[in-house]
Amino acid sequence: MATTTASAGGRLPLLDGVRRQTDYWAVVYRRTWRGTVVTSFLAPLLYVLAMGVLLGGFIDGDPTVLEGATSYFDFVVPGLIAAHAMQTAVGETTYPVMAMVKWQRIYDSMLATPLGCRDLVAAHLSFVLFRLATTCGVYTLVLAPFGVYGSWWGPFAAFACQLLVGMAFAVWVYGFSARLDSEEGFGLLFRLGVFPLFLFSGAFFPVSNLGTVGAWVARVTPLWHGVNLSRMFALDHVTWWIAGVNVAVLVVLTLSGWVWAVTGLEKRLVT
Amino acid sequence: MISARGLRKSFGAPGAEFEAVKGIDVEVQRGEAFGFLGPNGAGKSSTMRMIAAVSPISGGELRILGMDPAVDGPAIRGRLGVCPQEDTLDTDLNVRDNLYIYGRYFGLPKAEVNARVDELLDFVQLTDKADSKVESLSGGMKRRLTIARSLVNRPDVLLLDEPTTGLDPQARHVLWDRLFRLKQSGVTLVITTHYMDEAEQLCDRLVVMDRGVIVAEGSPLELIRQHSTREVAELRFGVAEQGETHDALAEKVEDLGDRVEVLPDRLLVYSDDGDGVIAHVHERGLQPVATLVRRSTLEDVFLRLTGRTLVD
């Protein structure tokens, strides 16, 4: 007989619940890591090459225009990593969630064990965090020799912020996917959500270029907060009160999104 | 092991609710094989999901292994084995990994799970398939793997929802044999099925469910004795030749048995002497194209209780 220690309210301690699923996610990663090499590592480097090097060669490196960067390469790279964190998070919480909920029904089989919805969401999101850490980590390391970073500690702070913005997206998109009946909704999410954010949240150009109204619209998007943090820390050009606001927004989004994700899965599977 | 009083389950928004289980009382004893028999939509699966401590109850009282599923969900689920109606195996993993990973969800140490996996593969006769992908298995093998998976935590109670639906006859018999062995070893089995032969083969005791309520309860034999005759004479008439409706024909044989059921393709005459019924039918000048005398089954019990057949 299996031993199970339940905490009050009919739940396992969350860490225990996640730990029990580590073997599952390790197997998932062993099975899929080859595919992620292209999307996670090669694609971003091609972006850096195309945008940072080839396009950037035509752009003047004026720090007053480029938010403190002395070259377009330095400007665009930290933003690209943050935007890529968003894309990785969305990628890991759309089709994979739909598959676990609906197509393969892996979650159903997990819920027949002592695990509960909270445990499943936490383990899935831990895997997303791992994917974000490896992707952004490799990205950050590869760029180190190119002199992007303005201080030794900047890249570490930027890295933490990239994980944070990734998780802010992961929780909300997870909750969306858990509630979605058909995968057609993902097309909408990518076209109307992810793609415009990717282009207009300040990764590729200073949001001040969008005009007064446009700039403020861009500044309320979650991705901008991540892009801004990533860039400020990478370039060591930090305005601390803005950084504080950026972090606060992303933390609040992540915490509220966690509730949205768990309730989404409960509504879907615990009927 | 399981005790339900006035157990209810409804779905949907308040006001527009659909009540799938409408207040049932069930007691399952240690070591018995207990069945829920009924057609699709009778409320069997909803009941099973509540017993599995996955689906919250809408009303009444439910105790599983002496615990309340609303409070002790994980502890209850840790001692149950669940074999769902549809296989929820991970088709991308091999057979062994499916079992191993599942064992880990119960918090079992790696070494213990590994030993258990070997035992279970042997028990469900899949040892030589241990390294195969699940996708390559036949339907019967997948079912056996699902059952092995549900046993990984050495459960006190094994819940089987329609365990042999969709399997060919040979695969069903192999599965029944394994379930029978489990029962012998003392595992309490709770089975839902819409196959009366399955219920008769496996269940010590069962309830017949229809439209969310229990319409009868007892051992298969008791139920047949109470609600049917010892034998049934089946009369199949060629519709065109007779030129008479089944209802009209039924009137002509009504007095030959305890009662007559009219099915779309045949008449069932319930009597303790089936051969006698057939002889009388012929004496009356009626010429069925085919006749059959068989003993009563749970299907007949169900027909009697609900006026409908189990498989619509």
Features:
heterodimer, A: 271 residues, mainly alpha, 0% strand, elongated, disordered N terminus, B: 312 residues, alpha/beta, Rossmann fold, Alpha-Beta Plaits, 2 domains, four-stranded antiparallel β-sheet, 12 helices
Detailed description of the structure:
- The complex is a heterodimer of chains A (271) and B (312).
- By secondary structure, chain A is mainly alpha-helical.
- Chain A has helices spanning 14-19, 22-55, 72-93, 95-103, 106-111, 117-143, 154-179, 184-200, 211-220, 222-235, 240-269.
- Helix content of chain A is 74%, strand content 0%.
- In chain A, α2 (22-55) runs antiparallel to α3, α6 (117-143) packs antiparallel against α7 (154-179) and α10 (222-235) packs across α11 (240-269).
- Chain B folds into 2 domains: 2-219, Rossmann fold, CATH 3.40.50.300; 229-295, YebC, transcriptional regulation domain (Alpha-Beta Plaits, 2-Layer Sandwich), CATH 3.30.70.
- Chain B is globular and about 75 Å long.
- With 312 residues, chain B is an alpha/beta fold.
- In chain B, α3 (95-105) packs across α4 (110-123) and α8 (220-227) crosses α12.
- Chain A binds chain B through residues 1-6, 9-12, 16, 20-24, 27, 31, 104-106, 108-116, 270-271, and chain B through 11, 52, 54-56, 69-75, 77-80, 82, 84, 86, 88-93, 97, 100-102, 104-108, 149-150, 153-156.
Specify the structural class of chain B: alpha/beta
Tell me the radius of gyration of chain B.
23 Å
Residues in helix, % of chain A: over 70%
Mean pLDDT of chain B: 88
Reading off the top of the CATH hierarchy, the class of the largest domain in chain B is best stated as Alpha Beta
- What CATH architecture of the largest domain in chain B do you see? 3-Layer(aba) Sandwich
Got a strand count of chain A?
0
N-to-C CA distance of chain A: 27 Å
Largest beta sheet of chain B, briefly? 6 strands, mixed
Distance between the termini of chain B: 33 Å
CATH topology type of the largest domain in chain B: Rossmann fold
Q: Please count the helical segments of chain A.
A: 11
Oligomer: heterodimer
DSSP summary, beta strand count of chain B: 13
Largest interface: A-B, 32 and 40 residues
Structural class of the secondary structure composition of chain A? Answer: mainly alpha
